[in-house]
Amino acid sequence: MSRFFDDVLNVIRQDERFFSREGGLLRNALYEAAMQMDSGLIKLLYSDEVTRERFFTDIGGIAVFDKTAFGWVVSNREFLPDSYTRYKNKIGLADPKGELISSSNDIELVFPYKECVLEGGQTKEDQKRAEIFYNAVLAPDEVDRLLYPKVLSNAKRYSADGIEKTDRIRRDDNLVIRGNNLLALSSLRKRYTGKVRMAYWDVPYNTGSDSFGYNDRFSRSSWLLFIKNRVEQALPMLTDEGGVFLIQCSFHQYSYLKVLLDEVIGNYIMTFNILVRHPDRTLTGDKEFNDVIEYVLVYAKSPDFRMPRKEEKKKVDDYQWTVRELTEGAPVEFDGKKGRVFLPGEYELTKTGPAKENFKIMTVRGSIREKVSSGRFYVKYLQPLEEKYPPKTLFKVDDIGDDMYDHRYFYLPPEGNKNGAYLQGMPTSSKVTYKPYPNFLDFVQSYNVVNDEGNVEFRNGKKPEDLLAFLMDIFTAEGDLVLDAFGGSGTTAAVALKMNRRFIICEQMDYIETVTVKRIHGVLKGEENDLLPEYGYDGQGSFVYVELAKLNQVFAERIAAATEEELPAIYDDMIGTGYISCRIDPGKINLSDPDFAGLDLDKKKRFLMELLDLNQLYISYCDIDDETFAVSSADKAVSRSFYEEG
After folding, report:
1. DSSP one-letter string for 78-94
2. Residue 463, Cα to own-chain centre: how many angstroms?
3. CB-based contacts of 89: which residues, under 8 Å, 6+ apart?
4. Considering 60, 139, 266, 562, which has the largest number of Cβ atoms within 10 A of its Cβ?
């Protein structure tokens, strides 16, 4: 490394924020601080003569910090290359331009191995460590067979009666798919194009400190690419009419996510702002503000989609007024409509108890003046008479309204008021009324008890069943198909069963069997706690659990669980399969090389992961009959039934 890079590093060492406990530079943290014009960093760089001359320009007596130049230095490969980087470059994992493969930006994959999982129960204090490799990025020319449909394996049907092996997936089966959700979605597309009514995804929030075991600390660009890849795979599966995409997130990425979805999906409908914690309840006192809101963004596949309205049964509570005519009134006519006029004292308007024969008072103001026929009638014919007749003069006009009466009463504004009104009886055209949904929802009580739902533990990641029921009730009907690519604790599937919806959920983490499947099966067996009883669910239905047939994914999982001593054997097995990256020359790899031997265990695992051909994580369906992959007859049968080819 050049002397200049040494000088910069020595200056930065004075700020412990940019170094891990082990003394390693947190390169991304340093870069982000520069881009955000961190005052402490700028003061530090200005205090040293070398960095002041290189990164500051004097303009009229004012020192201006060149963050672009500083960012270039921090990103430069010569700035503190560690032994891992040196060894990786040595064996050719960089592209022909010398750029690392991980700097490409086409497909974002995520693997459930140690370096990409936040351990449960982490606290703020133990987050200060070397930056972690959470995902892998494939450049466009590397995405070859990656998104091909995959072979399905280990299929089992779950019902209230138990579990049984199956070699067939029916059209109407509910599905739980284990495997990388990007590849699961690409395998679903052919069968389910145009079949999904609602996609609901509770995505990783990318907060940097979530405590459940998922990849939740991407850089923002990687996280957005991660979401984009999956949305693009799922979007064709939405129904052309009525298909909606719902994604839940926190404030950390909300604005960026909305910009992305506006571009990828378009047809933004609304955002539900969900109160998940009481404003007076603070989880940690060191936050800049009390974060109590989460967001559900709603998008439609069709530009013609219109937001459904809330249906409410009509009640008599507001119908409390009666009219008694004391005289015959004087005749009057409005453009062919006959009526009578009653001066104050010639009628009685009395408030009584609620009754379906009574009226409610509708003030003619706001949107009623333009959007309601009786409001428009008042504005056109009666408002001009306000100067001619005394306040509260009553007009009875024939053949107006949809209530039980053949007339409608209007009256002029009372003394000192500017708005007239009309008296409306209970409408007879419908027993319900339709109102728009509010964009603010209070689910605090539901979130307070969510840990007790489903008889499974899923810390900080579980969503309340009544929230999912609320959303499904708006956007779906019985028999509709719901897709959740981030299955988590299985809330979406549990609610879909109870509401007689069909479901497909995907999950790749190990807890799929101990949490996700256990919970859904518990619903079928009646063992789940008594939630959503209003839907009268009695245990009907079933679901099929199936896995993407693993290939290199087997090595990914072996690497995750390996000790230092087991890595050489895993490497030998990997080389023996031939399913390694085409960029790798096995002849140049020697695990006893000092650069490799000097790496810590996590970096050694990371290196072995990057040797794998990521196009071969799972067995592609087109290779189902290739003897090399040894697909069993049962897995062939279930795969062919799924892809409807035999």
Report:
1. TSS--HHHHHHHHTT-B
2. 12
3. 77, 81
4. 562
Pairing of strands 421-425, 407-411: antiparallel
Provide the pLDDT for residue 288.
Answer: 72
d(CA 42, CA 65): 7
* Residue position matching structure tokens 């009875």: 396
Q: Which pLDDT does position 207 carry in this prediction?
A: 64
Residue 459's identity, in one-letter code, is R
Among the listed residues 147, 169, 172, 237, the one whose alpha carbon sits nearest the alpha carbon of residue 201: 237
* Residue-level pLDDT at 421: 96
d(CA 434, CA 314): 10
Which residue type occupies 508?
Answer: Q
pLDDT at residue 528 greater than cutoff 60: yes
Predicted pLDDT of residue 645: 81
Q: Which residues make Cβ contacts (< 8 Å) with residue 491, sequence separation at least 6?
A: 453, 454, 462, 463, 464, 465, 468
CA-wise closest residue to 231 among 213, 252, 249 = 249
Between 425 and 116, residue with greater pLDDT: 425
- SS3 label, residue 527: coil
Full-model pTM: 0.68
Q: How many CA atoms lie within 13 A of 234 on its CB side?
A: 34
Tell me the pLDDT of the chain averaged across its residues.
Answer: 84
List, as one string, the DSSP characters of 471-525. Answer: HHHHH--TT-EEEES--TTSHHHHHHHHTT-EEEEEE-STHIIIIIIHHHHHHHH
Q: Which segments of 110-240 does DSSP mark as H helices, in order?
A: 181-192, 220-234
**pLDDT tens readout for residues 533-564:** 888 898 889 999 999 999 988 888 888 888 99
Query: SS3 of 396, please?
Result: strand
